[in-house]
Amino acid sequence: MPPLRPSETGEPVGATKIAFLLGTFFGMGLMLAILDLWGPGEETDVEHYREVRDLVTTTYVGDVEEADLLEHALEGMLGGLDAYSDYYVSEEVDEIDRDTSGQTIGIGVILRYRDAPQVLFPLSGSPAREAGLRVGDEILAIDGNETAGLESSDLNDLIQGEAGTSVVLRVRGLDGREREHEVERREMPLPSVRRVRLLDDERDVGYIALTSFTNRSVEEFDEAVDRLLADGMRALVLDLRGNQGGVLASAVDIARRFVTEGVLTSTRGRGEPNVERADPEFAWYAELPLVLLVDGSSASASEVLAGALQDHRVAVLVGEPTYGKGVVQTITRYPERRAIAKLTTSYYFTPAERCLQRGTEGHDWGLLPELSVEIDQDARLEVYRYLHGTFEPPQEALPALEAWEQESGEELIVEPPADEQLDAALAIFAGELFREVR
Protein backbone atom coordinates (compact mmCIF):
# COMPACT_ATOMS: atom_id res chain seq x y z
CA MET A 1 0.00 0.00 0.00
CA PRO A 2 1.62 3.28 -1.09
CA PRO A 3 1.84 6.29 1.23
CA LEU A 4 -1.23 8.51 1.14
CA ARG A 5 -0.70 11.82 -0.60
CA PRO A 6 -2.68 14.97 0.12
CA SER A 7 -4.88 16.06 -2.74
CA GLU A 8 -4.54 19.53 -4.20
CA THR A 9 -8.31 19.78 -4.58
CA GLY A 10 -9.16 19.88 -0.90
CA GLU A 11 -10.34 16.26 -0.73
CA PRO A 12 -8.89 14.09 2.05
CA VAL A 13 -5.66 12.35 1.16
CA GLY A 14 -5.91 9.13 -0.78
CA ALA A 15 -9.60 9.86 -1.37
CA THR A 16 -11.48 7.37 -3.54
CA LYS A 17 -15.12 6.85 -4.25
CA ILE A 18 -15.37 4.47 -1.33
CA ALA A 19 -13.37 6.49 1.17
CA PHE A 20 -16.35 8.48 2.41
CA LEU A 21 -18.68 5.59 3.18
CA LEU A 22 -20.22 6.57 6.52
CA GLY A 23 -23.23 4.36 7.20
CA THR A 24 -23.89 0.91 5.76
CA PHE A 25 -27.46 -0.24 5.32
CA PHE A 26 -28.45 -3.14 3.07
CA GLY A 27 -31.60 -3.40 0.96
CA MET A 28 -33.12 -5.21 -1.98
CA GLY A 29 -34.20 -3.28 -5.06
CA LEU A 30 -36.23 -4.05 -8.18
CA MET A 31 -35.83 -0.73 -9.98
CA LEU A 32 -33.48 -2.06 -12.65
CA ALA A 33 -35.76 -4.95 -13.48
CA ILE A 34 -38.77 -2.62 -13.63
CA LEU A 35 -36.98 -0.42 -16.16
CA ASP A 36 -36.84 -3.38 -18.52
CA LEU A 37 -40.53 -4.21 -18.02
CA TRP A 38 -42.12 -0.81 -18.48
CA GLY A 39 -43.67 -0.27 -21.87
CA PRO A 40 -43.54 2.83 -24.10
CA GLY A 41 -45.54 5.75 -22.80
CA GLU A 42 -45.91 4.45 -19.24
CA GLU A 43 -43.14 6.70 -17.93
CA THR A 44 -41.88 9.69 -19.89
CA ASP A 45 -38.35 9.77 -18.54
CA VAL A 46 -37.88 6.02 -19.02
CA GLU A 47 -39.12 6.32 -22.57
CA HIS A 48 -36.66 9.13 -23.22
CA TYR A 49 -33.87 6.94 -21.89
CA ARG A 50 -34.89 4.28 -24.41
CA GLU A 51 -34.89 6.86 -27.21
CA VAL A 52 -31.36 7.98 -26.43
CA ARG A 53 -30.18 4.41 -25.87
CA ASP A 54 -31.57 3.37 -29.26
CA LEU A 55 -29.92 6.38 -30.88
CA VAL A 56 -26.56 5.25 -29.48
CA THR A 57 -26.96 1.57 -30.35
CA THR A 58 -28.04 2.32 -33.92
CA THR A 59 -25.80 5.23 -34.90
CA TYR A 60 -22.73 5.36 -32.63
CA VAL A 61 -19.55 4.67 -34.59
CA GLY A 62 -18.27 1.99 -32.20
CA ASP A 63 -19.70 -1.21 -30.75
CA VAL A 64 -21.67 -0.77 -27.53
CA GLU A 65 -23.44 -3.07 -25.09
CA GLU A 66 -26.87 -2.08 -23.82
CA ALA A 67 -25.94 -3.27 -20.31
CA ASP A 68 -22.95 -0.91 -20.32
CA LEU A 69 -25.16 2.01 -21.35
CA LEU A 70 -27.52 1.34 -18.44
CA GLU A 71 -24.61 1.24 -16.01
CA HIS A 72 -23.23 4.50 -17.36
CA ALA A 73 -26.66 6.14 -17.08
CA LEU A 74 -27.04 5.05 -13.46
CA GLU A 75 -23.50 6.15 -12.61
CA GLY A 76 -24.29 9.57 -14.06
CA MET A 77 -27.61 9.78 -12.23
CA LEU A 78 -26.12 9.22 -8.79
CA GLY A 79 -22.67 10.69 -9.43
CA GLY A 80 -24.18 14.00 -10.51
CA LEU A 81 -25.94 14.51 -7.18
CA ASP A 82 -22.95 15.22 -4.94
CA ALA A 83 -19.38 14.15 -4.24
CA TYR A 84 -20.40 11.04 -2.29
CA SER A 85 -23.32 9.40 -4.09
CA ASP A 86 -22.44 6.84 -6.75
CA TYR A 87 -23.36 3.59 -8.46
CA TYR A 88 -20.91 0.66 -8.34
CA VAL A 89 -20.66 -2.62 -10.18
CA SER A 90 -18.54 -5.78 -10.17
CA GLU A 91 -15.03 -5.27 -8.75
CA GLU A 92 -16.02 -1.95 -7.18
CA VAL A 93 -18.59 -3.82 -5.08
CA ASP A 94 -15.89 -6.21 -3.88
CA GLU A 95 -13.74 -3.23 -2.88
CA ILE A 96 -16.56 -1.68 -0.85
CA ASP A 97 -17.26 -4.99 0.86
CA ARG A 98 -13.58 -5.35 1.72
CA ASP A 99 -13.31 -1.85 3.15
CA THR A 100 -16.45 -2.12 5.28
CA SER A 101 -15.96 -5.69 6.47
CA GLY A 102 -12.29 -5.28 7.40
CA GLN A 103 -11.60 -8.58 5.65
CA THR A 104 -9.93 -9.56 2.41
CA ILE A 105 -9.04 -12.80 0.66
CA GLY A 106 -5.33 -13.47 0.27
CA ILE A 107 -2.33 -15.37 1.57
CA GLY A 108 -1.26 -12.84 4.23
CA VAL A 109 2.11 -11.66 3.01
CA ILE A 110 3.57 -8.14 2.85
CA LEU A 111 5.70 -7.63 -0.25
CA ARG A 112 8.12 -5.04 -1.50
CA TYR A 113 8.84 -4.69 -5.21
CA ARG A 114 12.28 -4.56 -6.78
CA ASP A 115 13.27 -6.51 -9.92
CA ALA A 116 11.07 -9.26 -8.50
CA PRO A 117 8.65 -9.17 -5.55
CA GLN A 118 10.25 -9.92 -2.21
CA VAL A 119 8.57 -11.02 1.01
CA LEU A 120 9.05 -8.32 3.63
CA PHE A 121 7.31 -10.54 6.15
CA PRO A 122 4.34 -12.93 6.42
CA LEU A 123 1.59 -11.88 8.81
CA SER A 124 1.02 -13.76 12.05
CA GLY A 125 -1.32 -16.72 11.63
CA SER A 126 -1.41 -16.27 7.87
CA PRO A 127 -1.46 -19.02 5.24
CA ALA A 128 1.88 -17.69 3.98
CA ARG A 129 3.52 -18.16 7.37
CA GLU A 130 1.95 -21.60 7.82
CA ALA A 131 3.20 -22.64 4.38
CA GLY A 132 6.78 -21.68 5.27
CA LEU A 133 7.35 -18.36 3.52
CA ARG A 134 10.11 -16.35 5.22
CA VAL A 135 11.39 -12.83 5.58
CA GLY A 136 13.35 -11.89 2.44
CA ASP A 137 12.04 -14.63 0.14
CA GLU A 138 12.19 -13.45 -3.47
CA ILE A 139 9.16 -14.67 -5.43
CA LEU A 140 10.44 -15.98 -8.76
CA ALA A 141 7.23 -17.48 -10.15
CA ILE A 142 3.52 -17.63 -9.31
CA ASP A 143 1.72 -20.71 -10.62
CA GLY A 144 4.50 -21.07 -13.19
CA ASN A 145 4.37 -17.43 -14.30
CA GLU A 146 7.75 -15.72 -14.03
CA THR A 147 7.50 -12.53 -12.00
CA ALA A 148 10.46 -10.58 -13.39
CA GLY A 149 9.28 -7.39 -15.05
CA LEU A 150 5.64 -7.71 -13.97
CA GLU A 151 3.83 -4.68 -12.57
CA SER A 152 2.63 -4.89 -8.95
CA SER A 153 -1.00 -4.96 -10.14
CA ASP A 154 -0.27 -7.99 -12.34
CA LEU A 155 1.45 -9.74 -9.43
CA ASN A 156 -1.51 -9.06 -7.18
CA ASP A 157 -3.86 -10.50 -9.80
CA LEU A 158 -1.80 -13.70 -9.89
CA ILE A 159 -1.75 -14.07 -6.09
CA GLN A 160 -5.39 -13.17 -5.48
CA GLY A 161 -8.22 -15.63 -6.00
CA GLU A 162 -11.17 -17.29 -4.33
CA ALA A 163 -10.99 -18.45 -0.73
CA GLY A 164 -10.09 -22.12 -0.47
CA THR A 165 -8.05 -22.20 -3.65
CA SER A 166 -4.26 -22.43 -3.65
CA VAL A 167 -1.37 -20.69 -5.36
CA VAL A 168 2.09 -22.18 -5.93
CA LEU A 169 5.04 -19.85 -5.31
CA ARG A 170 8.60 -20.55 -6.36
CA VAL A 171 10.91 -18.49 -4.14
CA ARG A 172 14.60 -17.90 -3.48
CA GLY A 173 15.52 -17.25 0.15
CA LEU A 174 18.14 -14.90 1.52
CA ASP A 175 20.40 -17.96 1.74
CA GLY A 176 20.24 -18.29 -2.08
CA ARG A 177 18.30 -21.56 -2.08
CA GLU A 178 15.18 -21.99 -4.16
CA ARG A 179 12.02 -23.55 -2.71
CA GLU A 180 8.42 -24.10 -3.76
CA HIS A 181 5.40 -23.53 -1.54
CA GLU A 182 1.71 -24.19 -2.10
CA VAL A 183 -0.28 -21.56 -0.20
CA GLU A 184 -4.02 -21.62 0.40
CA ARG A 185 -5.96 -18.40 -0.07
CA ARG A 186 -8.10 -17.53 2.95
CA GLU A 187 -10.13 -14.67 4.35
CA MET A 188 -7.71 -12.41 6.19
CA PRO A 189 -8.34 -9.42 8.47
CA LEU A 190 -7.33 -5.93 7.34
CA PRO A 191 -6.56 -4.26 10.67
CA SER A 192 -7.88 -0.75 11.18
CA VAL A 193 -6.15 -0.47 14.58
CA ARG A 194 -2.38 -0.13 14.25
CA ARG A 195 0.83 0.92 16.03
CA VAL A 196 -0.44 -0.03 19.49
CA ARG A 197 2.23 0.78 22.07
CA LEU A 198 3.14 2.63 25.26
CA LEU A 199 4.67 6.00 24.39
CA ASP A 200 5.74 7.24 27.81
CA ASP A 201 6.79 4.64 30.38
CA GLU A 202 7.07 7.27 33.10
CA ARG A 203 3.48 8.47 32.73
CA ASP A 204 2.14 5.24 31.16
CA VAL A 205 0.65 6.98 28.11
CA GLY A 206 -0.65 4.55 25.49
CA TYR A 207 -1.05 5.11 21.76
CA ILE A 208 -3.48 3.67 19.19
CA ALA A 209 -3.79 4.67 15.53
CA LEU A 210 -7.29 4.07 14.14
CA THR A 211 -6.90 4.23 10.36
CA SER A 212 -10.51 3.52 9.30
CA PHE A 213 -13.84 2.31 10.64
CA THR A 214 -14.82 -1.22 9.61
CA ASN A 215 -17.18 -3.80 11.06
CA ARG A 216 -14.19 -5.15 13.03
CA SER A 217 -12.89 -1.83 14.40
CA VAL A 218 -14.68 -1.92 17.76
CA GLU A 219 -13.40 -5.42 18.53
CA GLU A 220 -9.88 -4.43 17.47
CA PHE A 221 -10.05 -1.24 19.53
CA ASP A 222 -11.22 -3.03 22.69
CA GLU A 223 -8.46 -5.61 22.33
CA ALA A 224 -5.83 -2.88 21.91
CA VAL A 225 -7.04 -0.85 24.91
CA ASP A 226 -7.24 -3.94 27.11
CA ARG A 227 -3.71 -4.91 26.11
CA LEU A 228 -2.39 -1.46 26.98
CA LEU A 229 -4.27 -1.41 30.27
CA ALA A 230 -2.67 -4.75 31.14
CA ASP A 231 0.71 -3.10 30.44
CA GLY A 232 -0.11 -0.32 32.91
CA MET A 233 -1.61 2.39 30.65
CA ARG A 234 -3.13 5.33 32.54
CA ALA A 235 -3.83 7.71 29.61
CA LEU A 236 -4.41 7.29 25.86
CA VAL A 237 -3.57 9.10 22.64
CA LEU A 238 -5.98 8.04 19.87
CA ASP A 239 -4.71 9.00 16.41
CA LEU A 240 -7.38 9.74 13.78
CA ARG A 241 -5.12 11.59 11.34
CA GLY A 242 -5.80 10.49 7.78
CA ASN A 243 -8.80 8.42 8.88
CA GLN A 244 -11.40 9.22 6.24
CA GLY A 245 -14.30 7.35 7.79
CA GLY A 246 -16.07 4.08 7.28
CA VAL A 247 -18.89 2.36 9.13
CA LEU A 248 -20.93 4.81 11.23
CA ALA A 249 -21.95 2.23 13.83
CA SER A 250 -18.32 1.50 14.67
CA ALA A 251 -17.59 5.18 15.34
CA VAL A 252 -20.66 5.44 17.57
CA ASP A 253 -19.75 2.30 19.53
CA ILE A 254 -16.22 3.55 20.19
CA ALA A 255 -17.69 6.86 21.39
CA ARG A 256 -19.84 4.83 23.81
CA ARG A 257 -16.66 3.53 25.45
CA PHE A 258 -15.89 7.04 26.76
CA VAL A 259 -19.27 8.76 27.26
CA THR A 260 -21.64 7.71 30.04
CA GLU A 261 -24.81 9.60 29.09
CA GLY A 262 -26.40 11.85 26.49
CA VAL A 263 -26.58 12.08 22.71
CA LEU A 264 -23.57 10.94 20.67
CA THR A 265 -24.82 11.89 17.22
CA SER A 266 -28.06 12.38 15.33
CA THR A 267 -28.86 12.00 11.64
CA ARG A 268 -31.61 13.85 9.80
CA GLY A 269 -32.88 13.31 6.30
CA ARG A 270 -36.32 12.89 4.75
CA GLY A 271 -37.47 10.30 7.26
CA GLU A 272 -37.59 10.38 11.03
CA PRO A 273 -34.40 11.63 12.70
CA ASN A 274 -32.21 8.95 14.22
CA VAL A 275 -30.49 9.64 17.55
CA GLU A 276 -27.58 7.57 18.88
CA ARG A 277 -27.15 7.79 22.66
CA ALA A 278 -24.53 6.82 25.20
CA ASP A 279 -25.01 3.74 27.36
CA PRO A 280 -23.25 3.64 30.75
CA GLU A 281 -23.10 -0.15 30.50
CA PHE A 282 -20.57 0.18 27.68
CA ALA A 283 -18.60 3.21 28.94
CA TRP A 284 -15.70 0.98 29.96
CA TYR A 285 -12.99 3.61 29.49
CA ALA A 286 -14.87 6.70 30.68
CA GLU A 287 -12.24 7.47 33.33
CA LEU A 288 -9.31 7.16 30.93
CA PRO A 289 -7.66 10.55 30.12
CA LEU A 290 -7.83 10.92 26.34
CA VAL A 291 -6.27 13.04 23.59
CA LEU A 292 -7.34 12.74 19.94
CA LEU A 293 -5.00 13.62 17.08
CA VAL A 294 -6.88 15.02 14.06
CA ASP A 295 -6.06 16.78 10.81
CA GLY A 296 -7.57 17.88 7.51
CA SER A 297 -7.94 14.27 6.38
CA SER A 298 -9.89 13.19 9.47
CA ALA A 299 -13.32 12.95 7.89
CA SER A 300 -16.77 11.45 8.11
CA ALA A 301 -16.99 8.78 10.84
CA SER A 302 -13.78 10.20 12.35
CA GLU A 303 -15.61 13.48 12.84
CA VAL A 304 -18.60 11.69 14.37
CA LEU A 305 -16.31 10.14 16.99
CA ALA A 306 -14.22 13.27 17.56
CA GLY A 307 -17.29 15.52 17.67
CA ALA A 308 -19.02 13.36 20.26
CA LEU A 309 -15.96 13.22 22.51
CA GLN A 310 -15.24 16.93 22.11
CA ASP A 311 -18.81 18.03 22.85
CA HIS A 312 -18.96 15.82 25.96
CA ARG A 313 -15.54 17.16 27.04
CA VAL A 314 -14.04 13.73 27.54
CA ALA A 315 -11.16 14.29 25.10
CA VAL A 316 -8.85 17.08 23.99
CA LEU A 317 -8.41 17.45 20.22
CA VAL A 318 -4.87 18.24 19.05
CA GLY A 319 -3.68 18.97 15.53
CA GLU A 320 -5.46 20.71 12.67
CA PRO A 321 -9.11 21.35 11.65
CA THR A 322 -10.89 18.26 10.37
CA TYR A 323 -12.17 17.87 6.81
CA GLY A 324 -15.84 18.72 7.26
CA LYS A 325 -17.94 15.86 5.90
CA GLY A 326 -21.30 15.95 7.66
CA VAL A 327 -23.43 13.73 5.43
CA VAL A 328 -24.39 10.07 5.64
CA GLN A 329 -24.65 7.63 2.75
CA THR A 330 -27.06 4.69 2.58
CA ILE A 331 -26.18 1.61 0.57
CA THR A 332 -28.78 -0.36 -1.39
CA ARG A 333 -27.73 -3.62 -3.02
CA TYR A 334 -28.93 -5.07 -6.32
CA PRO A 335 -27.49 -8.60 -6.14
CA GLU A 336 -29.01 -9.72 -9.43
CA ARG A 337 -26.84 -7.08 -11.12
CA ARG A 338 -23.92 -7.35 -8.66
CA ALA A 339 -24.36 -3.63 -8.10
CA ILE A 340 -24.58 -1.11 -5.27
CA ALA A 341 -26.24 2.29 -5.13
CA LYS A 342 -24.70 4.61 -2.53
CA LEU A 343 -26.84 7.65 -1.89
CA THR A 344 -26.50 10.61 0.45
CA THR A 345 -29.62 10.40 2.64
CA SER A 346 -29.02 12.59 5.72
CA TYR A 347 -26.88 15.06 7.59
CA TYR A 348 -25.35 14.13 10.91
CA PHE A 349 -25.07 16.44 13.90
CA THR A 350 -22.77 16.40 16.92
CA PRO A 351 -24.26 16.35 20.45
CA ALA A 352 -24.03 20.17 20.50
CA GLU A 353 -26.12 20.32 17.29
CA ARG A 354 -23.20 21.16 15.04
CA CYS A 355 -23.45 20.17 11.38
CA LEU A 356 -19.90 19.81 10.11
CA GLN A 357 -20.58 19.68 6.37
CA ARG A 358 -18.40 22.05 4.38
CA GLY A 359 -20.36 24.40 2.17
CA THR A 360 -23.45 24.39 4.41
CA GLU A 361 -24.52 27.93 5.21
CA GLY A 362 -24.66 29.33 8.71
CA HIS A 363 -21.77 27.55 10.41
CA ASP A 364 -18.09 26.73 10.24
CA TRP A 365 -17.34 23.31 8.77
CA GLY A 366 -15.27 20.65 10.43
CA LEU A 367 -13.97 20.45 13.99
CA LEU A 368 -11.42 22.85 15.45
CA PRO A 369 -8.87 21.31 17.84
CA GLU A 370 -8.44 22.79 21.30
CA LEU A 371 -4.70 22.77 20.69
CA SER A 372 -3.71 23.80 17.16
CA VAL A 373 -0.42 22.31 15.97
CA GLU A 374 0.34 22.55 12.24
CA ILE A 375 3.01 20.48 10.49
CA ASP A 376 4.51 20.92 7.05
CA GLN A 377 3.91 18.73 4.02
CA ASP A 378 7.05 16.63 4.36
CA ALA A 379 6.31 15.87 8.01
CA ARG A 380 2.72 14.98 7.12
CA LEU A 381 3.82 12.51 4.45
CA GLU A 382 6.13 10.80 6.92
CA VAL A 383 3.30 10.48 9.44
CA TYR A 384 0.95 9.04 6.81
CA ARG A 385 3.61 6.65 5.61
CA TYR A 386 4.00 5.35 9.14
CA LEU A 387 0.28 5.16 9.91
CA HIS A 388 -1.23 4.14 6.57
CA GLY A 389 1.52 3.20 4.17
CA THR A 390 2.89 0.11 5.88
CA PHE A 391 1.87 -2.78 8.09
CA GLU A 392 3.84 -3.26 11.25
CA PRO A 393 5.80 -6.52 11.32
CA PRO A 394 4.81 -9.19 13.86
CA GLN A 395 7.16 -9.75 16.78
CA GLU A 396 8.34 -13.10 15.44
CA ALA A 397 9.55 -11.44 12.21
CA LEU A 398 11.61 -8.70 13.87
CA PRO A 399 14.88 -10.65 14.41
CA ALA A 400 15.05 -11.70 10.75
CA LEU A 401 14.15 -8.19 9.57
CA GLU A 402 16.78 -6.59 11.80
CA ALA A 403 19.44 -9.01 10.55
CA TRP A 404 18.43 -8.29 6.95
CA GLU A 405 18.61 -4.53 7.61
CA GLN A 406 22.13 -4.82 9.00
CA GLU A 407 23.32 -6.92 6.07
CA SER A 408 21.69 -4.84 3.32
CA GLY A 409 21.94 -1.37 4.85
CA GLU A 410 18.31 -0.72 3.86
CA GLU A 411 15.48 0.55 6.02
CA LEU A 412 13.06 -2.37 6.26
CA ILE A 413 11.37 -1.58 9.58
CA VAL A 414 9.61 1.78 9.44
CA GLU A 415 10.41 3.73 12.58
CA PRO A 416 8.07 6.35 14.08
CA PRO A 417 8.82 9.73 12.46
CA ALA A 418 9.40 13.05 14.18
CA ASP A 419 5.90 14.20 15.09
CA GLU A 420 5.17 17.60 16.63
CA GLN A 421 1.46 16.86 16.97
CA LEU A 422 2.11 13.70 18.94
CA ASP A 423 4.69 15.56 21.03
CA ALA A 424 2.02 18.15 21.85
CA ALA A 425 -0.35 15.41 23.02
CA LEU A 426 2.32 14.04 25.33
CA ALA A 427 3.02 17.54 26.63
CA ILE A 428 -0.62 17.83 27.71
CA PHE A 429 -0.29 14.69 29.81
CA ALA A 430 2.99 16.03 31.19
CA GLY A 431 1.15 19.13 32.42
CA GLU A 432 2.90 21.53 30.06
CA LEU A 433 0.22 24.06 29.14
CA PHE A 434 0.90 25.80 25.87
CA ARG A 435 -1.28 26.85 22.97
CA GLU A 436 1.24 27.84 20.39
CA VAL A 437 -0.01 27.84 16.81
CA ARG A 438 2.74 26.55 14.56
Concise synopsis of the structure shown:
This protein is α+β, with helices and mostly antiparallel strands. It has 12 helices and 19 strands.
Name the shape in a single word. Answer: flat
Radius of gyration: 24 Å
CATH homology-level superfamily of the largest domain: 2-enoyl-CoA Hydratase, Chain A, domain 1
Question: What is the beta-strand fraction?
Answer: 15-25%
Which residues sit in consecutive blocks of at least 5 with pLDDT less than 50? 1-41, 434-438
CATH architecture field of the largest domain? Alpha-Beta Complex
Return the CATH topology of the largest domain: 2-enoyl-CoA Hydratase, Chain A, domain 1
Which sheet architecture does the biggest sheet show?
6 strands, mixed
Helix count, DSSP H or I runs of 4 or more residues: 12
Distance between the termini: 30 Å
Structural class: alpha+beta
The CATH class assignment of the largest domain is: Alpha Beta
Major sheet: order of its strands?
10-11-12-15-16-19
What is the overall pLDDT average?
85
